[in-house]
Model the fold of this input.
Amino acid sequence: MTDKLIIFDTTLRDGEQSPGASMTRDEKLRIARQLERLKVDVIEAGFAASSNGDFECVKAIAEVVKDSTVCSLARANDRDISRAAEALKPAASGRLHLFLATSPLHMEKKLRMTPDQVFEQAKLSVRFAKNLMGDIEFSPEDGYRSEPDFLCRVLEAVIKEGATTINVPDTVGYAIPELYGNFIKNLRERIPNSDKAVWSVHCHNDLGMAVANSLAGVKIGGARQVECTINGLGERAGNCSLEEVVMAVKTRKDYFGLELGIDTQHILAASRMVSQTTGFVVQPNKAVVGANAFAHASGIHQDGVLKARDTYEIMRAEDVGWSANKIVLGKLSGRNAFKQRLLELGVAMESEADINNAFAKFKELADRKSEIFDEDILALASDESASHDNEQYGFVSLSQHSETGERPQACVVFTVAGKEVKGESDGNGPVDASLKAIESHVKSGAEMVLYSVNAISGSTESQGEVTVRLQNSGRVVNGVGADPDIVVASAKAYLSALNKLQSKADRVAAQG
Ligand code: KIV
Ligand code: ZN
Done:
């Protein structure tokens, strides 16, 4: 058994399935590049057959990513598999990930197939895929709730057909660490050709145990691949969190004894990028990437850390991308210092023009805010990389008036397909008035299902990062905006969500 643990990131596929977390092609490309920088072994780029948009995303990622294997999900049928293989053609290293449900409940209620039919389809689909690509992963969906005898029969057959990775999903997050670990161990012991495949774990977090279950699958079950997402992004309570599983295996190497290929210094930038792109805010006390993860607020702890850092710190903040020096740049900082800081934060800009634009925004921000923190730079970089010339709506300026006892008024100037327009409205508060001012012109009819404000670096001097979630005709999208003025940040977030609602995508869900 190898001592390398393969990290398979599915932020762009399973993570993106989370309502509201859908990403544009450019956003996915940017995250894929960051995942490559992080040196994840496999990037699941999407589900090519689910929509034309997903097909294009998988293809675009396959074209640019060279150091990680690029994977596409496919249902276990010839059409899906051919489509996925087609999208993966440009990949330096590609993988087809086939899935088919094997639990009694899913076979009977969802697939309406008998176990024998599922067995045949699993076998034939892997046979078909193997003719198109060497690297084949097979997932028995809802595997953890499947009958072990039937699962052994299916998995033995697909390995015989050439599946090189066997992934055992706990699709509904029902597992308990010891039981899940032993489940995998028993499968590996009972299946005669189990040593011909790498075993993989894929855990959902419904009971808050996705990371614990995945680690048990590794330690007890002998799995050598973990499927996970940045920030644990994913449907319902999410997936196993990449940063937690990676830092657990690295910090407790004494226990796991496994090697990882991950360059952990890029973890924080990846976390910020995913959070800002999707609008899924990272809770302050989130392990590894939360704002408080390395903050020692209590006097006793601070004293201990100053005397010897390992009194209270089991990991080094720098190792996951936090900088020791938090106030980083100011008004007088030059372009080189800015560029250097971007590099230290693991942010790669696509071109010198992008750096120039981001630097101009940095100067604007530094005029309004005396201290610029890493979080500000990450927000700025993310905003810069996410902005597109071809977006339908763009923020220009805003004015609003609010006074005790008076109904607030707002006037927002924004662009629609490059042309400036003005919307005016009153509202319950300045934010409400500003968003109604935009809506008075756009008339999207979208329902707001979430509005949240987060201070990027913790004080009232900080930039506010606003997330707006809109729902329209069954689609849910998130928009994010950052600015020292939270009313402006709100208007930017609203326009960003409207832009996403514009890009229509009909897609097939991977589950259900
Ligand atoms: O949770 C799950 O079962 C999945 C499969 C499609 C692998 O995401
Ligand atoms: Zn899943």
Notes: The radius of gyration is 24 Å. The longest helix spans residues 352-368. Residues 463 and 484 are 4 Å apart (CA to CA). Residues 294-319 form one domain.
